[in-house]
Every structure is written in structure tokens, then in C-alpha cells.
Amino acid sequence: MRKKTSLTIVERAMVLVPEFKDRALKLEHQVVLRGQSASTLNNYIRCIALFVIHFEKLPEHVIEDEINEYLVALARDPNAPSRSSFKHMVYGLRYYYRLLGMNKKAIALPSLKQDTKLPVVLNRQELKMLFSAPTLLKHRIILTLIYSAGLRGQEVINLKISDIDFERMVIHIRQSKYKKDRIVPLSSAMVIGLKKYLSAENSLVWLFNGKEPDGRYSVKGLSWVMRENLKKTSIAKSINLHSLRHSYATHLLEQGLNIVTLRDLLGHADISTTMIYLHVAQCQHITPHSPLDTLYGKALHKQA
After folding, report:
1. Dihedral over alpha carbons 274, 279, 280, 286 (to 10 degrees)
2. Which of 63, 90, 171, 194 is the most exposed place for a label (fewest CB within 10 A)?
3. Catalytic status, residue 61
4. Which of 23, 94, 140, 152 is catalytic?
């Protein structure tokens, strides 16, 4: 007997308002043409689908007062774990209206303040504790590699064996966020562990084999590795997998790396994103002085 499959939120919206199917397709094409990620597309379409289901009509047919009432209710929802649902809805609707050339409706939506939370960073002792926690070599390699190269979760699962260049001591990260390639240094401390791991694994293409349909590891799997091994430590900070990337960036700044080079290593499109780490890095303070004082050495000779 065939099991009944429940409709997704997007499918329900299409059944309720058939015209939404055309809008969703148009939205998908625009996201692809702009080179934005699949997760961005899914977030936008899902939010707009929820909006369509609520009003039982397309967003362009909903008046401003009704939109504001809906958004206020969403922002005040006690069941929402954070304001993320509200924010995603505003971003999705703004994108939708601009796509249809309805800029007035897009501008009328509430403006959103950027979060000012500083990234949580692990200190060196905490990192050593975390890296010694895994019993499986694979898990230890995953965690240390992320920190050693400042990788995003998606970048880790996309790494192929051929992207690790042991001779040139670099890692080639391909088509990451913003559809950009970049090269980052391969830590000499990682080489022994990586070679030992590769000799024990039967990897043919992907650096980390997993249960995804194409044989890759999953980002959820990476997060699980982080969570489970974190439990074995005494680290009390509220951290996640991305905290390893934050720690990488902060520690490089503290070791004297300039902000422009760090931006390139992290693959940021805008240097303002990288500058958040200046607020958490404990960099050595230099006493204000005139550059003339050091032009001819440590100090100037007094003139008569």
C-alpha cells in the first residue's frame, strides 16, 4: 500500500493560490542568475509561501496595513525561538517586491538593524581540549582542519582529496560563498594527521566520505561531531562549529596578520565583515607616536 505524502509549505501555497507557482519559478530563476545560494532561495520561497497561505492571495494583493499587522504578530510570537522568522519574512518579501518592480512596497517594509553580537572565540587551551576529545581520527581531523584553515561547514564537505596540495602546502577552496575560489595555507601540523587519515580511509574523491547521495559528508554531520565532542570537555562557552572559524580569524589578528590578508583568507566579499574580529582580538597596543621618531631608528638624536 502506497503511503500518503504530505505537501510541503510551498506546495500548499501553490494549491491554495495557483498563481504562486509562476512567482516561485521567477524567484528561483532570479536567485540562480544572481549566483545566490540554494539556502537563500529556500528561505525566501518558504517565507513567501507562509505569507501566501496566511492571506490566501499573492503578496502584491495584500495592503500595507495588513502586512504590518502580520509582521507585528510574527515579531511578537512567543513560540518563535528568536527574531529570525520575522527577519527572514521581511527579507523575503522585500526581495519578492523588488523582483516584481514594486519598489514602493519594498521600501515600506520595516528596516532591520544588524545584529551587533560579537563572535564567541575559543582560547588556545580550550582548542587543545576540544581537539583531544574525539576518539575517532576522522573527527579529530575534521575539527582541527576547520580551525587550521578557517573553513565554513559547506566548504569542508565540498573538499576533494585533490584540493589538498601537500607539495605547495595549500588548500584550494572551490566555488564557496559568493561563488569564489580561494587558496589558504595548509598547516604543517595538519600534514601528518591528514596523511594518516587518508591512508586509513578509502576516500576516492571527497576528503570526508559520508551518507549524502553523492558520497559526501553533511553539514549536519559536522555539527554533530562538534556537539558530541564538546560534551567531553569542560568548555562552558556557547559555541558551535562556526566558532572554530571565528577563533581562526581572531588568533591570526592577534598574531599580527593584517586585516586585508585576513579578509582574503576568509573569503569575505566586504572587509567590513572581517572588521568585526577587531573588536574581539586582543592585539598588542602600540603607544601613539610620530612616524618621524622611528624613521632614523628607535629615537631621534637631540638637535642643538
Report:
1. 110
2. 63
3. no
4. 152
